[in-house]
Amino acid sequence: MRILVFYQYFGTPKGKWSTRIYELTKRWVNEGNKVTVVTSPYEKSDIKAKKRIERQKVEGIELIVINYPDSNRFSKLKRILNFLLFSFFSIYYALTEKTDIVIASSGPITVGVPALFAKFFRRKKYIFEVRDLWPQGAISLGILTNPLLIKVSFFFEKLCYKQASCVVGCSQGMADNITDRFPNVYTSVIPNASDNSLFKTNVLSNKEGKPIFIYTGSLGAMDDVDLVIEATKVLKERGEADFLVEIVGDGVERNNLEQKVRLYQLSNVVFTGLLPKKEVVNKITHALAAFVCFKPLPILNTVSPNKMFDAFAASVPIIQNTDGWIKDYVNIHQCGISVDPKDPNSMADAMKKFLSDKSFQVKASINAKKAAETDFNRDRLSEKYMNIIENVIHG
Questions:
Q1: What is the residue range of 257's domain?
Q2: Which of 203, 202, 213, 217 is nearest to 235 (CA)?
Q3: Looking at residue 291, which CATH number applies to its domain?
Q4: Which residue, among 390, 378, 327, has the nearest Cα to 20 in the 3D structure?
Q5: Same structural domain for residues 213 and 140?
Q6: How buried is residue 85: exposed, middle or buried, by Cβ count under 10 Å (0-12/13-18/19+)?
Q7: Which residue in 125, 152, 166, 247 has the fewest CB atoms around it within 10 Å?
Q8: Whether residue 189 sits in one domain with residue 222
Q9: Does 246 lie in the same domain as 207?
């Protein structure tokens, strides 16, 4: 089978970014399929290019790298321009690459452009993968404010969903959101997953020494690491400071967060910056619990954050503040603690629970690993995704 994927942020574990598409396509290639991914360099990825367009190969995965790099540090206008240029050049490959099916993984949602060209001009079926709900997320965060652009964005979103043979959501919340608005659109769920092969330590190994809480990922507009800083301050005021908080990542909010840490004189909070995935693996493995925290916006209750699945793979439970499917999962499977997204005292109480209740920590760690090996097992989810692909092709 030949599969053509349009995904702007492809990266491997050598980089500092999500490896979802790499992990899926690597498995499909190992099963005898030919996979081509049209992508571009990203600040946090390890994929680079010297020419305007380069063909590369990574572990059997064919890459077409369109060299219009993206970074969260770029201005809004520059990022939009790069999205459009990537989509424009991708159209050529949508019209010429030999393939049995097309997958467009969004965001940005502009990856839907080449998929639509393949559908309309070559009658190729395509799967539209939703990793972030757009434009709803951009509107909620105040990024997209122009009424005309909002109207056009909703029109294009609808077009991408309606023309797709299947819309794959990265969480049940995303799929439900799409189904509620477009009842006739066929949806399925393939969440982000745990890479258990990267985390081979036992449940309680490496948990000795000073307790460590960890946050991994972006420090951006949708993330609420500020809640972690405020909770650490609360614990300091309570006389609890014999632990470390490691913040692994970067983003536009990093300077503000570091200033607050200095203001509060929190010597037990450390910023490491971006690290390769393999180094992040080692740090997560040593943690007592991992933070999964987002701004208290309804649209963010649908997220499917890689940081959670990495934590589970490392037998590390989470402290999370969303009010959607993750909260339900954590409460049912007892693999962490859900906290009030607006109350640092609630976050501080959760941290104290992990620090003081050894039996609870052991149970939560065991349940976290169980979640990684069952519901979020990458091999099982890859197989499920392949079944969707085959059903779309032959259906």
A1: 196-373
A2: 213
A3: 3.40.50.2000
A4: 378
A5: no
A6: middle
A7: 152
A8: no
A9: yes
Q: What order do you get walking across the sheet with 244-248 strand by strand? A: 269-271, 244-248, 212-216, 289-292, 318-320, 336-338
| 62 and 99 assigned to the same domain | yes
Indicate the pTM of the whole model.
Answer: 0.89
Report the C-alpha gap between 19 and 23 in whole angstroms.
Answer: 6
Which pair of structure tokens corresponds to residue 122? 């070559």
**SS3 state of residue 339:** coil
Give CA–CA dist 365/38, Å, rounded: 38
Amino acid at 254: R
Q: Do 83 and 188 sit in the same domain of this protein? A: yes
Query: Per-residue pLDDT for the chain (395 aa), expressed as one digit of tens each?
Result: 999 999 999 999 888 788 899 999 999 999 999 999 999 998 888 999 999 999 999 999 999 999 998 887 788 788 888 999 999 999 999 999 999 999 999 988 999 999 999 999 999 999 999 998 988 888 887 878 889 989 999 999 999 999 999 999 999 999 999 999 999 999 999 999 998 888 765 444 445 578 999 999 999 889 999 999 999 999 999 999 999 999 999 988 999 999 999 999 999 999 999 888 778 888 999 999 999 999 999 999 999 999 999 999 999 999 999 999 999 999 999 999 999 999 999 999 999 999 999 999 999 999 999 999 999 999 999 999 999 999 999 97
Q: Are residues 217 and 158 in the same domain?
A: no
For residues 321 and 291, give the distance between their C-alpha atoms in angstroms, rounded to a whole number: 9
Tell me, letter by letter, the H, E, C secondary structure of 207-269.
CCCCCEEEEECCCCCCECHHHHHHHHHHHHHCCCCCCEEEEECCCCCHHHHHHHHHHHCCCCE
Q: Which residues contact 158 (CB under 8 A, 6 or more apart)?
A: 182
Q: How many domains does the chain have?
A: 2
User: 378: which residues sit within 8 A by CB, 6+ positions away?
Assistant: 23, 27, 193, 194, 195, 196
Same domain, 284 and 150: no
Two tokens, residue 168:
């794959």
Burial class (CB in 10 A: 0-12, 13-18, 19+), 121: exposed
